[in-house]
Protein backbone atom coordinates (compact mmCIF):
# COMPACT_ATOMS: atom_id res chain seq x y z
CA UNK A 1 0.00 0.00 0.00
CA UNK A 2 1.41 3.37 -0.99
CA UNK A 3 2.20 5.93 1.67
CA UNK A 4 0.72 9.43 1.59
CA UNK A 5 2.23 12.73 2.57
CA UNK A 6 0.78 14.06 5.81
CA UNK A 7 -0.19 17.25 3.96
CA UNK A 8 -2.67 15.19 1.94
CA UNK A 9 -4.67 14.59 5.13
CA UNK A 10 -4.86 18.22 6.28
CA UNK A 11 -8.28 19.71 6.95
CA UNK A 12 -9.23 23.21 8.10
CA UNK A 13 -12.31 24.72 9.70
CA UNK A 14 -12.98 28.27 10.93
CA UNK A 15 -16.03 29.35 12.88
CA UNK A 16 -17.22 32.47 14.58
CA UNK A 17 -18.08 32.22 18.28
CA UNK A 18 -21.69 33.29 18.89
CA UNK A 19 -23.38 33.88 22.25
CA UNK A 20 -25.35 30.62 21.88
CA UNK A 21 -22.00 28.75 21.64
CA UNK A 22 -20.92 30.03 25.07
CA UNK A 23 -21.25 28.75 28.61
CA UNK A 24 -22.04 30.72 31.78
CA UNK A 25 -18.41 31.98 31.79
CA UNK A 26 -19.01 33.58 28.38
CA UNK A 27 -16.45 31.28 26.73
CA UNK A 28 -16.94 28.60 24.09
CA UNK A 29 -18.55 25.44 25.50
CA UNK A 30 -15.92 22.73 25.82
CA UNK A 31 -18.39 20.23 24.37
CA UNK A 32 -18.95 22.43 21.32
CA UNK A 33 -15.20 22.57 20.72
CA UNK A 34 -14.93 18.80 21.20
CA UNK A 35 -17.62 18.35 18.56
CA UNK A 36 -15.64 20.56 16.15
CA UNK A 37 -12.51 18.51 16.95
CA UNK A 38 -14.13 15.15 16.27
CA UNK A 39 -15.72 16.46 13.06
CA UNK A 40 -12.50 17.79 11.53
CA UNK A 41 -10.42 14.82 12.72
CA UNK A 42 -12.83 12.46 10.94
CA UNK A 43 -12.22 14.37 7.70
CA UNK A 44 -8.44 13.95 7.99
CA UNK A 45 -8.89 10.25 8.73
CA UNK A 46 -11.12 9.76 5.69
CA UNK A 47 -8.72 11.71 3.48
CA UNK A 48 -5.96 9.23 4.38
CA UNK A 49 -7.82 5.99 3.72
CA UNK A 50 -10.74 7.12 1.51
CA UNK A 51 -13.08 4.79 3.40
CA UNK A 52 -15.40 4.90 6.38
CA UNK A 53 -13.75 5.60 9.71
CA UNK A 54 -14.85 5.60 13.33
CA UNK A 55 -13.44 7.37 16.34
CA UNK A 56 -11.67 4.74 18.44
CA UNK A 57 -10.60 7.13 21.17
CA UNK A 58 -10.23 10.74 22.10
CA UNK A 59 -6.76 10.46 23.51
CA UNK A 60 -6.57 13.98 24.85
CA UNK A 61 -8.08 17.41 24.61
CA UNK A 62 -5.98 20.04 26.32
CA UNK A 63 -7.81 23.33 26.78
CA UNK A 64 -5.01 25.89 26.98
CA UNK A 65 -6.81 29.25 26.65
CA UNK A 66 -10.51 30.19 26.76
CA UNK A 67 -12.18 31.11 23.49
CA UNK A 68 -14.41 34.17 23.74
CA UNK A 69 -17.20 35.71 21.63
CA UNK A 70 -14.73 38.27 20.25
CA UNK A 71 -12.73 35.38 18.75
CA UNK A 72 -12.95 33.17 15.74
CA UNK A 73 -11.86 29.58 16.25
CA UNK A 74 -9.81 27.79 13.59
CA UNK A 75 -9.01 24.10 13.65
CA UNK A 76 -6.35 22.30 11.66
CA UNK A 77 -6.10 18.52 11.66
CA UNK A 78 -3.88 15.95 10.02
CA UNK A 79 -2.91 12.29 10.40
CA UNK A 80 0.44 12.04 12.17
CA UNK A 81 0.97 8.28 12.34
CA UNK A 82 -0.66 5.01 11.37
CA UNK A 83 -0.81 1.46 12.61
CA UNK A 84 -2.30 -1.39 10.58
CA UNK A 85 -5.91 -0.16 10.57
CA UNK A 86 -5.70 2.76 12.98
CA UNK A 87 -4.43 6.28 12.63
CA UNK A 88 -3.53 9.06 15.03
CA UNK A 89 -4.96 12.47 14.15
CA UNK A 90 -3.59 15.68 15.65
CA UNK A 91 -5.86 18.69 15.98
CA UNK A 92 -4.60 22.22 16.61
CA UNK A 93 -7.12 24.86 17.73
CA UNK A 94 -6.23 28.52 17.17
CA UNK A 95 -8.30 31.39 18.49
CA UNK A 96 -8.06 34.76 16.81
CA UNK A 97 -9.30 37.96 18.38
CA UNK A 98 -11.27 39.49 15.54
CA UNK A 99 -10.67 43.04 16.78
CA UNK A 100 -6.88 42.87 17.41
CA UNK A 101 -5.82 40.00 15.13
CA UNK A 102 -3.95 38.32 18.01
CA UNK A 103 -3.73 34.54 17.47
CA UNK A 104 -3.19 31.98 20.24
CA UNK A 105 -3.10 28.19 20.38
CA UNK A 106 -6.26 27.61 22.43
CA UNK A 107 -6.28 23.79 22.52
CA UNK A 108 -4.62 20.67 21.16
CA UNK A 109 -6.01 17.19 20.78
CA UNK A 110 -5.06 13.70 19.67
CA UNK A 111 -7.68 11.25 18.44
CA UNK A 112 -7.45 7.72 17.12
CA UNK A 113 -9.57 6.53 14.21
CA UNK A 114 -10.00 3.10 12.67
CA UNK A 115 -10.71 2.48 8.98
CA UNK A 116 -13.62 0.18 8.13
CA UNK A 117 -14.58 -1.89 5.11
CA UNK A 118 -17.72 -0.47 3.48
CA UNK A 119 -19.39 -3.89 3.16
CA UNK A 120 -18.28 -6.03 6.09
CA UNK A 121 -17.72 -3.27 8.63
CA UNK A 122 -14.45 -4.95 9.59
CA UNK A 123 -11.15 -3.15 9.99
CA UNK A 124 -9.05 -2.51 6.90
CA UNK A 125 -5.40 -1.57 6.38
CA UNK A 126 -4.48 2.10 6.02
CA UNK A 127 -1.55 3.69 4.20
CA UNK A 128 1.41 5.00 6.13
CA UNK A 129 2.20 8.70 6.25
CA UNK A 130 5.28 10.69 5.28
CA UNK A 131 6.10 13.77 7.36
CA UNK A 132 7.71 16.78 5.68
CA UNK A 133 7.61 19.83 7.97
CA UNK A 134 9.39 20.08 11.33
CA UNK A 135 6.01 20.02 13.09
CA UNK A 136 4.96 16.88 11.20
CA UNK A 137 8.31 15.17 11.84
CA UNK A 138 8.15 15.86 15.58
CA UNK A 139 4.59 14.56 15.86
CA UNK A 140 5.40 11.49 13.74
CA UNK A 141 8.57 10.69 15.68
CA UNK A 142 6.82 10.92 19.07
CA UNK A 143 3.70 8.98 18.00
CA UNK A 144 4.87 5.46 18.97
CA UNK A 145 5.14 6.54 22.61
CA UNK A 146 1.58 7.90 22.51
CA UNK A 147 0.39 4.68 20.81
CA UNK A 148 1.89 2.61 23.63
CA UNK A 149 0.25 4.86 26.22
CA UNK A 150 -3.12 4.41 24.43
CA UNK A 151 -2.70 0.63 24.38
CA UNK A 152 -1.91 0.59 28.10
CA UNK A 153 -4.78 2.98 28.95
CA UNK A 154 -7.22 0.83 26.94
CA UNK A 155 -6.14 -2.30 28.81
CA UNK A 156 -6.58 -0.51 32.13
CA UNK A 157 -9.99 0.81 31.04
CA UNK A 158 -11.14 -2.72 30.20
CA UNK A 159 -10.00 -3.94 33.63
CA UNK A 160 -11.71 -1.04 35.34
CA UNK A 161 -14.95 -1.66 33.41
CA UNK A 162 -15.02 -5.13 35.00
CA UNK A 163 -15.51 -3.51 38.41
CA UNK A 164 -18.39 -1.31 37.34
CA UNK A 165 -22.01 -2.18 37.99
CA UNK A 166 -24.72 -2.00 35.37
CA UNK A 167 -27.64 -2.26 37.79
CA UNK A 168 -30.31 0.39 37.82
CA UNK A 169 -30.18 2.42 41.03
CA UNK A 170 -33.79 1.51 41.85
CA UNK A 171 -33.20 -2.25 41.61
TrEMBL record:
GO terms for biological process: acyl-CoA metabolic process; fatty acid catabolic process. The keyword Membrane does not apply. The keyword Hydrolase applies. InterPro entries: Cytosol_ACT, HOTDOG_ACOT, HotDog_dom_sf, Thioestr_dom. This is Acyl-CoA thioester hydrolase. Gene3D superfamilies: Hotdog Thioesterase. Residues 7-119 form the HotDog ACOT-type domain. GO terms for molecular function: long-chain fatty acyl-CoA hydrolase activity. It comes from Paenibacillus beijingensis. GO terms for cellular component: cytosol. Keywords: Hydrolase. Belongs to the acyl coenzyme A hydrolase family. It holds the Pfam family 4HBT.
